[in-house]
Every structure is written in C-alpha cells, then in structure tokens.
Design goal:
mainly beta, five-stranded mixed sheet, Metallo-depent_PP-like, bis(5'-nucleosyl)-tetraphosphatase (symmetrical) activity, Ap4A_hydrolase
C-alpha cells in the first residue's frame, strides 16, 4: 500500500476480491507478470503478481501460453508506448497515467491481435477528433 496525504491506495483487485490472474486456452492475464523461478506459477506471491518486473521481463516464461500483462510501461521495455509483443509475453501498458497513451489489445484468436490506442495527454482531453488509432498486427 502507498500513502499519499493520509490516503491509502490499495489495488482494486484486493479490495473487491478479484483473482490475481485469469487464464484461457491461449493466454494468462496478470497485472505485472509471472515469476519464472516458480515451477507452478500459481504459487507465486500476491506481491509478485502485482509488482514483479525482473526476472519476468528479461527471462522466458515457464508456461506454454502467452502472458498478457501491464504494470510496466511499454515505453520502458521497447522505447515506445505501443503494445509490446515479446514472443511469450505481451505488454499492454501504454503509460496513460504518465500522459502517453491508453492501449487496447483485441484478441481475435490464437496469435491474431488488433491493437488500438488513444492519446492520454493530461493537458487536453481526448475528443472524437483525436479518434482511435488502429494498428494492425
């Protein structure tokens, strides 16, 4: 938890009891990533689900599904706010909280994706004129 001016900021999933991950037939969705040091990734700590960066970002996963994650800005991974496709993982955090962009990953099927983004400048509110940028993958 972080404190700011007497207020405590707790991740929403903790407050309302959401699980720390979701899994389907081709993907694992998690806030920050999976710790590759665990033989059974579901046994990693809640803190790792929420905050891991290294070793997740720089090492292959130990799962046979693609891991879709946020928490780490794509800008910090590959120098752009666009969705990062890293083979066994996909980073979707466009850095909107930092004035960059909000990303959306549409999963159409196995290895079939469309990416959308909207500018998140804090100096001006997005309007319909800004539109949504479609980037085909």
């Amino acid at each position: 938890m972080h404190s700011s001016g007497g207020l405590f900021h707790v991740p929403l999933c903790i407050i309302i009891g959401f699980p720390f991950f979701h899994e389907d037939s081709h993907h694992i969705y998690v806030h920050a990533g999976l710790n590759p040091q665990y033989e059974n990734w579901k046994e990693q700590t809640k803190h790792e689900f929420m905050y891991i960066k290294e070793p997740f970002l720089n090492h292959p996963t130990t799962v046979d599904k693609i891991v879709v994650f946020g928490h780490t800005k794509a800008m910090d991974i590959h120098g752009k706010a666009d969705v990062w496709f890293g083979g066994d993982k996909i980073g979707i955090d466009g850095g909107c909280a930092y004035g960059l962009q909000l990303n959306c990953l549409e999963i159409r099927g196995k290895n079939d994706y469309a990416v959308y983004s909207v500018n998140c400048s804090h100096h001006e509110q997005p309007s319909e004129a800004d539109g949504i940028v479609l980037k085909k993958r």
